[in-house]
Amino acid sequence: MCGIVGYVGGRPALDVVVEGLARLEYRGYDSAGVAVLADGKLATAKRAGKLVNLRGALEDEPPPEGTLGMGHTRWATHGAPNDRNAHPHVDCTGSVAVIHNGIIENFAELRAELEENGHRLLSDTDTEAVAHLLEDEVKAGGGLVEAMRRVCRRLEGAFTLVAVHTGDPDLVVGARRNSPLVVGVGEGENFLASDVAAFIAHTRNAIELGQDQIVELRAGGVTVTDFEGRPADVKEYHVDWDVSAAEKGGFDYFMLKEIAEQPQAVADTLLGRIGADGRLHLDEMRIPDRELREVDKIIIVACGTSYHAGLIAKYAIEHWAGLPCEVELASEFRYRDPILSPSTLVIAISQSGETMDALMAVRHAREQKAKLLGICNVNGSTLPRECDGVLYTHAGPEIAVASTKAFLTQLVAVYLIALYIAQVRGTKWGDEVFAMVQLLERMPEKVEKVLETMEPVRELARSLSGEHCVLFLGRHVGFPVALEGALKLKELAYMHAEGFAAGELKHGPIALIEEGLPVVVVVPPRAREVLHDKIVSNIQEIRARGARTIVIAEDGDESVEPYADTLIGVPAVPTLLQPLVTTVPLQVFACELASAKGHDVDQPRNLAKSVTVE
Ligand code: M6R
Fold first, then answer.
1. Which atom of ligand 1 is nearest to the CA of 607?
2. Is-catalytic flag, 387?
3. What are phi and psi of 177, to 5 degrees?
4. Res 234: pLDDT
C-alpha cells in the first residue's frame, strides 16, 4: 500500500526521493507526490496516476534544489485518487508538510474541530487533518518532534507519518503505529522508508522501529523516542541482499525473475536448518522443545497466498506432527471466538510481515495467551516483533505483487516446522522424518526441472487469452494449489477463476461446466492410488460435459493421458511435497496469460503488495 520515503543529507533530495518511490512502486498506488525543503521554503508537487505523471510535472516545473525531502505513493482509502488528495498535504501556512500510510479512524472529529477553529482543509483525506494539527502544535511551541508526539497521542487507527517544517530545515520526523517504517542509516545522510528497498542503493544499514515510536532524522544522526518522549531501544540490522536483488536483472517482469529464482529461494530457506546427522535445527523459533511438547492444537492465520500455504501446512502438520490444526483467514479470526489456550500454538504466515489482518490476528491470539510463531520473509518487519519466535523464509525481496517465490519458501518453512515438531514430539519414527528431510533437500532441483519445461504452458496461456473463465480442481494438498492457481489468474489476468476441491464437483460446481470451458486439474501422485483414481474419474466427468481439460500430473502418468486435452508433467515427489512442483506451472500460466492480455504483470490494478490497512 502507500509508499513513504524521507531523506536528509548532502545530495539533491528530489533525486533520492523519486528514485526511492520508483523502488516502492511495487507496493501498489494510484497517485504520487513529493515535498522538498529549500531556502527555507517548502515546494510540493503531486499527480494522480503513476510516477511518470509526477516526473512529467517535475520536469515542467522543477522545484528548487534542496537536500531534505520526502515522497509518497498513495493507495487511496479516503477520497478519490486525484491530484488534490495525493500526498504531501500542507497546513494553512504552507510551512508543514505531511505524508501518511494507514487510516486515521477519528479523522472526521478532528477535521470538524479544525474547521471550527478556522483551518481550511482542501482535500478529502484523513491525512490533511494531521498537517493542520501539527500547525497548531508547532505554534504552541516545543518544535516539530514534540508537536508530532502531541498529535500522535490524539490519533486513533493505524499510521506511519512523516513530516517536515520550514522552521527546522535539517529535520525529518517520522512516527509509527501499526504501519511500517524503517530507518536507513548512511554516512552524513539518513533515510526513512516504508521498506528498505527504497534506500538499499545507498545503505544496507537499517533500524527497525517499534510501535508508537517517533524518529528524529537529521543528516548527522537519528534519535528514536516513544510518544511520551522516552528514549527507545533501537535494533540496528544489516540487510542481507543488495540493490541487484530488487532489480529485474534482464527479465521483462519482476514476477518472471521471481519465478525463476524459486529453486535458489527453496535452497536458501533450507540452508543451515538441517544438521549433518539429518536432524532439524530450528533454534530461531525460540519456542523451547519442552513447550512444543505441550502444544495440543495449532491454528494458522494468514491472508491470500500465505493462507494457501497455511492450508497445505494443515495436511503436513496433522500427518507428521499428529496435532490438530485449523487454518483461518486472518481477517476473520478475531471477529469470531476462537478457542485458544496457553497450549495452543498460533502460526502466522506473512511474506511482508506487515499485513494488518495478520498482525491483528496475532494480537488477538496473544491476548488469549497462545504461543505465537511467525513465518515471515521481511527482516525488520512488524510480525516477527509480535511473535514469540519466527522462522524466516529466505526468498529475498519479492517485488511483484503476485506472490511466487515467497509461497514456495513458505511451504518449505511449514514442512520444516511440521517435521521439527514430529522430531521433538517423537510422533513419527525418526527414519520417516529423516527420509522427508532428505527429499526436501532435493526439491530445488525438482523445481528447476519444472522451470525447464514451461514453454508448452506459456503457449497454452497465450492460446487462452480470449477466455473469460478458468476453473481449477484439486484434491488433498492439490486443493489449496487449485485455489492458488485461481488466485494468481484473478489478480493478474482479471479473469473469473475458481478453485474447487474435486470431491465437491458433484455438489454444485459441475453445473458450471460447458463446452470448451478450460479446467485445470491437479492430479495427486500415482502412489496415492485412491486419491489419484478418484480425480481421474473427475476428469472424465468434466470432459464428458465438454470441458477442455488441462491436467497437471507427475511425469509418466499414462492413466490421465486419454482424458487430457493438455498434459503438463511435473517430477514425481511425495504427495505432501507435491505443491512445490505443481504450483509452478500455474504461476507461469497466469503470468503469461496476463502478459498476453497486455496487463501490468508486476502491478495489477487495484492491488497492493502488502495490505497494511484492514
Ligand atoms: O505479505 P502477506 O503474505 O501477508 O500478504 C498476504 C496477501 O496479501 C498476499 O499473499 C496476496 O494474496 C498476494 N498478492 C497473492 O499473490
1. 14
2. no
3. -145, 115
4. 87
Could you tell me the pLDDT band of residue 336, with boundaries at 50, 70 and 90?
Answer: confident
Is residue 545 classed as helix, strand or coil in its secondary structure?
A: coil
pLDDT at residue 198 above 70? yes
Cα–Cα distance for residue pair 37/121, rounded to 1 Å:
22
Does ligand 1 have an atom closer than 6 angstroms to the CB of 348? no
In whole numbers, what is the pLDDT of the chain averaged over residues? 94
Atom 10 of ligand 1: nearest residue by CA position: 305
- What is the CA(305)–ligand 1 centre distance, in A? 5
Sign of the alpha-carbon torsion through 426, 430, 436, 442: positive
19 Cβ contact partners less than 8 Å away, ≥ 6 residues apart = 201
pLDDT for residue 84: 93
Integer Cα distance of 562 and 553 in angstroms: 13
Rounded to the nearest 10 degrees, what angle do helices 579-596 and 455-463 cross at? Answer: 40
pLDDT at 592: 97
**Count of alpha carbons within 13 Å of 597, Cβ hemisphere only?**
23
Q: Which atom of ligand 1 is nearest to the CA of 302?
A: 4
Q: Is the CB of 393 under 6 A from ligand 1?
A: no
Range of lowest pLDDT (140-144, 240-244, 470-474): 240-244
Checking DSSP bridges between strand 190-193 and strand 3-8, what pairing results, if any?
antiparallel
Is the CB of 410 inside a 6 Å radius of any atom of ligand 1? no
Tell me, in angstroms, the distance from the centre of ligand 1 to residue 403's CA: 6
**Residue carrying the nine cell digits 540493490:** 243
Nearest atom of ligand 1 to the alpha carbon of 352: 1
* Ligand 1 atom nearest 610 alpha carbon: 1
| Mutate-to-test residue for ligand 1 from 489, 600, 611, highest number of ligand atoms within 8 A of CB | 611
Query: Catalytic site residue 490?
Result: no
Query: How confident is the model over 285-318, as pLDDT tens digits?
Result: 888 999 999 999 999 999 999 999 999 999 999 9
**Å from CA of 279 to ligand 1 middle:** 31
Please give the distance, rounded to the nearest whole angstrom, from the Cα atom of residue 139 to the centre of ligand 1: 43
Count how many Cα atoms sit within 13 Å of the Cα of residue 249 in the half-sphere of its side chain: 14
**Domains in the chain, ordered, with CATH?**
3-246 (3.60.20.10), 269-441 (3.40.50.10490), 451-596 (3.40.50.10490)
Rg (CA), the chain: 25
Distances (CA, A) of 101 to 47, 150, 179: 17, 19, 7
